[in-house]
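Marked as duplicate of an earlier ticket. Keeping the data here for the record.
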Amino acid sequence: MESQTRLDLYREMVLIRSFEEAILREYHADKTPVWDIGAGLIPGEMHLSAGQEPVAAGICASLTKDDAVTATHRPHHLAIAHGMDLNKLAAEIYGREGGLGHGRGGHMHLFDPATHFSCSGIIAEGYPPALGQAFSFKNAKSNSVVVAVTGEGAANQGAFHESLNLASLWKLPVVFVVEDNDWAISVPRAKSTSVSSNVERGAAYSMPSELVKDNSVEEIYHVAKSAIDRARSGGGPSLIEIHTLRLWGHFEGDAQGYRSDLETVTSRDPIPAYEVELRAREILDDQLVAKIKDEASAKVQKAIDFAKASPIPEPASALKYVFA
């Protein structure tokens, strides 16, 4: 891998983490008590993806703005890595008119035609729409592809199996990604499913399937690039299962009493680990690390300022963007 590619992957992960750390801070501002989801500057629940940045950076590095991504209710890392406008993303999270959905959707329902991005709070919801987009791309004789991401907790849903079956039958240009952060909402996979790896399920639907075990952004990059290139050239669907890491709770306010790994989880943070690796390769030094983090902080602050300056929707306009 070229040094510039490694640097780009690191820069993307730092930007994602900077954004989510800011959202974490802003989400808890003025919330008394802390579990009151209706209080504070940011309304609603909040699901953050700290620790899962390698998935987004590694996969989206091989995508263009003409490719599509469908994500889960934990979508910020994928949205940012796929090139979503940071200002509009922040404004939507704040529930403001300047947001992607004019503040009506919130952080779990991000829809962006400019980058063909969508997500939902419904479990495994992103897989069926991904097939629709992939079918459209194929029918138009385009070389665009779709990456459909879901969590390991969603892999027992009917939508998961129906989508894999149909994508394989029609040889659609879609790459299915399962983000396995160990805990789903609060239950490890061993207690919820009889299959030890979703790679077995991909193989059962006659598609190449591969497991990335260690949350390595470079390994994810290589595996994803191969699958995306295959889909783009007409080879049909693939499945990638990535054993990643959720550093924080399932949602903000999650006490995480179910987790047995809390004492060691911070030591597995993928960003400091990758920084150490790039320093050893003499790609990063103190000056460049500071520069990248300062640039990310500036972009994020600009987005936060944009969101706060954007007006709150008037209650009388609640039905303005409702259509059928």
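See parent ticket for discussion. Residues 3-267 form a domain with the Rossmann fold fold (CATH 3.40.50.970).
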